[in-house]
Specification:
Order of helices and strands: EEEEHEEEEHEHEHHHEHHHEHEEHEE
Organism: Paspalum notatum var. saurae
Helix content: 25-40%
Distance between the termini: 24 Å
Strand content: 15-25%
Number of strands: 16
Mean pLDDT: 91
Radius of gyration: 20 Å
InterPro entries: PAE/NOTUM (IPR004963)
Low-confidence stretches: 9-40
Structural class: alpha/beta
Main location: secreted
GO biological process, one term: cell wall organization
Number of helices: 11
GO cellular component, one term: plant-type cell wall
Length: 415
């Protein structure tokens, strides 16, 4: 077992069909912030950035689940980065039925009334050169996530007081940022982790379309490769869950037509089916043993009524040989899903064999002395090499337990 372990002390997960599977933001893991770890920002000294509500959004019907205004946090660039833009789409799970979305709208994941007024920018968002050497002086934006559908929905439920307006929020945020100066960008990067990683893949080519053809535009999806995989009981928990999102939020119209023209809408919510047709250069950052997927789609409680996976779910060190073999099969599916994509010269990959989830927004995994490495390159090094075309950026780890640089997530409880 690798020496670096991050203890996550907050875990409130309940995955099954219906509302129990997705109860908004709090019972579902808030991927970008809830690693209630012993160092909540991974040791960063990054700046705190205030929330800006998008005042023009209401007239466009671009509102959060509860009808409140959407928003973002913008920290201006300077020096050589004054005309460069990094737009990060916040993650934080989904809601897939009326009851889970009603629960969610009472939280920061469904209402700007509950959002933090300031967020600390860490990892790829940091404003410190020693923490983020390639992007520290860019204009850096975190677009808050309050629609529960990865910025894809376009509907409503009047009886429940719910607005599914993710696609409109995306457009309103981009319009506002373009007016704030992003239209003059000489280079731009769209990023996001977890549900934000899904959003990044689904909106990548749209983002490219905002800019002139001579602007360098690329996309970075962190921990967004949610696989259409069979769980330990032989069911497809994630497919059932995503199907609920697409139906409830009427997301189909917003999904990439390059996918929906050849596959059903639910399949096109899975990044693995969108990747083959993305035209914009994209970087996939993922672990081969994503702990969110281990807990929610590979071995969810609903698929494990006898609790045979309960210890393995919370700490990989407790996985027995049969369980590890099952997880090696999951790793193989992950590698298969990106094989064709990674063959393209314009794309980049960094898939390490860690039990983790989201590595670009935490300082300890993005860029620190003891950060995870592949080919002696930290994640920040690999992403920078790819974006600025300084060299090859295709890194795939050997199978667990060969990597001693991982920052594994270990949970205190399985609730």
């Amino acid at each position: 077992m690798a020496p670096w372990v991050v203890l996550a002390v907050v875990l409130a997960l309940s995955v099954g069909a219906g509302a129990g599977a997705a109860r908004g933001a709090e019972p579902w893991w808030n991927e970008t912030q809830v690693y209630g770890t012993q160092a909540n920002s991974g040791g960063s000294n990054g700046v705190f950035v205030g929330l800006t509500l998008i005042q023009s959004a209401a007239a466009k019907g671009a509102v959060c689940l509860d009808g409140s205004l959407p928003g973002y946090h913008l920290h201006r660039g300077f020096g050589s980065g004054a005309n460069s833009w990094l737009v990060n789409l916040e993650g934080g799970g989904w809601c897939n039925d009326v009851s889970s979305c009603v629960f969610r709208k009472g939280s920061r994941r469904g209402s700007s009334n509950h959002m933090e007024r300031q967020l600390q920018f860490t990892g790829i968002m940091s404003n410190r050169r020693e923490e983020n050497p390639d992007f520290y002086n860019w204009n850096r934006v975190k677009v808050r996530y309050c629609d529960g559908g990865s910025f894809t929905g376009d509907g409503s439920n009047a009886a429940a007081g719910l607005y599914f307006r993710g696609q409109r929020i995306w457009q309103a945020a981009m319009d506002d940022l373009m007016a704030q100066g992003m239209r003059y960008a000489n280079q731009a990067l769209l990023s996001g982790c977890s549900a934000g990683g899904v959003s990044t893949i689904l909106h990548c080519d749209e983002f490219r379309g905002l800019f002139p053809s001579n602007t360098r535009v690329k996309c970075l999806a962190d921990a967004g490769m949610f696989l259409d995989t069979v769980d330990v009981s032989g069911r497809r928990e994630m497919r059932s869950f995503f199907s609920g999102i697409v139906r409830l939020q009427d997301s189909g119209r917003s999904l990439p037509r390059s996918c929906t023209s050849r596959m059903d809408k639910t399949s096109c919510f899975f990044p693995q089916n969108v990747l083959p047709n993305i035209q914009t250069p994209t970087f996939i950052l993922n672990t081969a043993y994503d702990v969110w997927q281990l807990q929610q789609s590979v071995a969810p409680k609903a698929a494990d009524p006898q609790g045979l996976w309960s210890k393995c779910r919370t700490n990989h060190a407790f996985c027995n040989s049969n369980q590890l073999q099952f997880l090696q099969g999951f790793r193989n599916q992950m590698l298969d899903a990106v094989r064709g994509f990674s063959a393209s010269r314009q794309n980049g990959v960094f898939i390490n064999s860690c039990f983790a989830h989201c590595q670009s927004e935490r300082q300890d995994t993005w860029y620190a002395n003891d950060s995870p490495r592949l080919g002696n390159r930290r994640i920040a090094d690999a992403v920078g090499d790819w974006f600025f075309e300084r060299g090859d950026a295709k890194y795939t780890d050997c199978a667990y337990p060969c990597d001693g640089t991982c920052h594994h997530l270990v949970f205190r409880g399985d609730h």
